[in-house]
Amino acid sequence: MMPSAIYFCFPHRGVGGVSLLFLRLAHSISEKYGQKCILIDYADGYMATRADLNLVDVVDYDDNKKTTISGDAIVIFQSMTPWSIFPGLSISDDVRILFWNCHPLNLAATLPGVRNFAIASSGMIWKISQLVVRSFRKRLGEFAKHLIANDALVFMDHENVISTEINTGINVESPVFIPIPAITCERRRFGIRNFDEASVIHLAWVGRIVDFKYFILKRLLDDVSNLADISELLFKVTIVGDGSHLENLRGHSSRITNYEISFVTHLEESELNEFLATDVDILFGMGTSALEGAKLGVPTVLLDLSYKNVPDTYEYSWLYQRDGSTLGKTLRDFSPEGSSYRSLSLLIAELLQEEQVLSQKTYSYFLENHSMEVVTDKLLSTLGQSTCFWGDLRLNGLVKPSLIYKLFYTFRRILLT
């Protein structure tokens, strides 16, 4: 049964995939179905400052005040550990809940503030950290099992299922998949270049430059440099994005001198569409960003995420060669016989020979798996099936805050003010 109101809850000020995802879905569902959609965000957050108030409502969120959600409603969260649910929320017991796993580590129990360090460190450090949080991991498994039993946990792809099983110790027998969508564009590009020996191959990355994306970007820049050394082709790379590791990437790129690298911190959606459709030969991306090119028919290479250096045995592949849902897998094992720059050179050779075919395949893959129309229908059907009520989570102690996490976030809030 569909509720009277759908709340999309993701208070966040920066540019990010979930903010963009929730904003687009709320607009699309409201416009197409007349369903009441409400965004919960900081007053100066990404969704709040870009929402079309003719289509959706916005509720201001504040960590230090209470934001009430009540009535015939369902709240959509990006999956998160129960002890890290936004503390300013006051949710009535009769409100239904849906969690959407949009990152492989959404449901991972780690010590607060050291997750990425532990993941990037040796296996022993990771194992020690997991021993410390063993009780949290058990509680997280109970939380996830409750969600699954009440049709309230969905996954964007198989990678999220695998990681959830590893990090919670449970078996997800019949996962429900809702892929990440992007808005279908009227403008499409099917083969606009006539390459010759003087052509400059323009490669681009779009997306945040943060810990789990930084290392694969380093690998890409190094592989393009290796290709530039042995090939007569000319290359240009544009990095569109901002984030915690931007300066690290700038420093790494400053040592590369055999092709041009430029940085653009942000482009609004219309500017990005124009840039990709007219200037870019191959887009490299992860998550929602990969779809920004695919929706236009730009040949797109899907990159995978890693919290540590990616070896030169990595294998690049086109987005359309993936499984229909994944937008990046977690790199755990590498083939000892692969060659990253050789696999990249094969993709570029394909581009030179059959750009139009690649464009058509990329666009068709997007329409079949990631168009807004396909995904909104799946989401609305899933929302109607959720029987998970906030009151059940609360009364079973599944969303009780952890003292360790409360202390950590209190101290962090004090330091940031």
Characterize the structure shown.
This protein is α/β, with parallel strands linked by helices. It has helices at 17-33, 115-120, 123-132, 134-149, 158-168, 211-230, 246-253, 269-279, 288-294, 340-369, 372-383, 390-395, 403-416; strands spanning 5-9, 36-41, 57-60, 67-69, 73-78, 89-91, 96-101, 153-155, 200-206, 234-240, 260-264, 282-285, 300-302. Strand 10, helix 7 and strand 11 form a beta-alpha-beta unit. The two termini are 43 Å apart.
Secondary structure elements and their pairing?
Blueprint: E1 5-9, H1 17-33, E2 36-41, E3 57-60, E4 67-69, E5 73-78, E6 89-91, E7 96-101, H2 115-120, H3 123-132, H4 134-149, E8 153-155, H5 158-168, E9 200-206, H6 211-230, E10 234-240, H7 246-253, E11 260-264, H8 269-279, E12 282-285, H9 288-294, E13 300-302, H10 340-369, H11 372-383, H12 390-395, H13 403-416
Parallel strand pairs: 1-2, 1-5, 2-3, 4-6, 5-7, 7-8, 9-10, 9-12, 10-11, 12-13
Helix pairs in contact: 6-7, 6-10
